[in-house]
Design goal:
This protein has a four-stranded mixed beta sheet, sandwiched between helices. Helix 4 runs antiparallel to helix 5. By secondary structure, it is an alpha+beta fold. The protein contains eight helices and four strands; from the N terminus they run H-H-H-H-H-H-E-H-E-E-E-H.
Length: about 190
């Protein structure tokens, strides 16, 4: 998905404001992050709220009223004021993407990376801990590991983080082997077995 050009700018603005406030109040950066996650979950559970904020037919003043009723006193003040600013500037349609980008920027700022590992069967505790330790050493970051199960990969794993993919699945290997076999030209690459 292509993000709007202003998404990164607004995300950095929220992160910098939270970091500045964190110099006075030690827990505010994590509190903002937690509230951003809750707000994104609210958008998922209440799609009508998102539709209302994104609709060009709804006046900004009405959107601001909804934001005030939904968030004032219920989240960290810095986040409440930020959401009001986004709506007031006519960027409410990009709020979800801005908040999602904030989570990525926050993790990057504190040296954390979220890694999605897809396997054919669930990873055990020892496998999870071993993989997490290996990734932390390779990436030199704190790794938050999420394991998804997809039986279609047959075996091995697919590792995804920060827009990158390492596919070491059995399915990928078999697909590659099949493609290699199909590209053989008879007579030129065959050798006698003896």
């Amino acid at each position: 998905m292509l993000l709007e050009p202003y998404t990164a700018t607004y995300s950095r603005t929220l992160l910098e404001a939270a970091q500045d406030r964190a110099t006075e109040d030690d827990g505010v950066l994590e509190a903002v992050r937690d509230d951003v996650e809750l707000l994104l979950a609210l958008f998922e559970s209440a799609p009508r709220l998102q539709l209302l904020l994104e609709s060009p037919r709804v006046q900004e003043s009405e959107k601001l009223g909804v934001v005030k009723a939904a968030l004032e006193g219920r989240c960290v003040d810095i986040l409440y004021r930020f959401v009001r600013l986004v709506v007031d500037k006519g960027r409410a349609e990009g709020l979800r993407e801005i908040l999602a980008q904030f989570l990525v920027d926050h993790d990057r700022a504190i040296g954390r990376v979220r890694v999605n590992v897809t396997t054919a069967v669930p990873l055990g505790e020892a496998q999870t801990a071993g993989l997490q330790g290996t990734l932390e050493k390779k990436l030199d970051k704190t790794v938050v590991l999420e394991n998804q199960v997809d039986e279609e990969i047959l075996g091995g794993m697919v590792v995804r983080f920060e827009g990158m993919v390492a596919d070491a699945s059995l399915k990928k290997s078999l697909d590659r082997f099949g493609a290699d076999m199909m590209s053989l030209r008879l007579g030129s690459e065959l050798v006698h077995e003896d």
